[in-house]
Design brief:
Shape: elongated
Strand content: 5-15%
Strand order of the largest sheet: 1-2-3
Mean pLDDT: 80
Distance between the termini: 10 Å
Bound molecules: zinc ion
Helix content: 40-55%
Order of helices and strands: EHHEE
Number of domains: 1
Protein name: Zinc ribbon domain-containing protein
Radius of gyration: 18 Å
Oligomer: single chain
Length: 117
């Protein structure tokens, strides 16, 4: 009952699956993402400002920036959820995509990689 048959595995599992993550690492990762989010938001604002004063809109650029912001925001949301679930306890990282997962998760929520050993 491992569910391996449902997922095509491009890479073999490293021995022992994903590494475990300490509460400190979780906090660091969150702080880094929060910084990244703030920077991206600042850049997006600056970009919009530059376009506004030149009255030259590159909507594709704005959309690309917003998409990156959204990705970071989603990752941050996932981390916060994880911190609540686990209260800084034993979480791990997916051996396939490095996303964090809570203890007892059977599959990675990002790439559906099986996590049970
Ligand atoms: Zn994954």
């Amino acid at each position: 009952m491992r569910g391996r048959d449902y997922v095509a595995e491009p890479k073999p599992l490293p021995p022992g699956g994903g590494r475990s993550v300490t509460p400190d690492e979780l906090t660091d990762r969150r702080a880094r993402l929060e910084r990244e989010f703030a920077e991206l938001q600042f850049d997006l604002g600056g970009l919009a400002y530059e376009m506004a004063i030149r009255d030259h809109w590159r909507v594709d650029l704005l959309v690309r920036h917003a998409a990156r912001l959204q990705t970071v925001d989603a990752e941050l949301g996932g981390l916060e959820r994880l911190a609540r679930i686990d209260e800084g306890g034993a979480a791990g990282t997916c051996p396939n995509c490095d996303a964090l997962y809570p203890r007892g998760a059977a599959f990675c929520s990002q790439c559906a990689h099986p996590l049970m050993r």
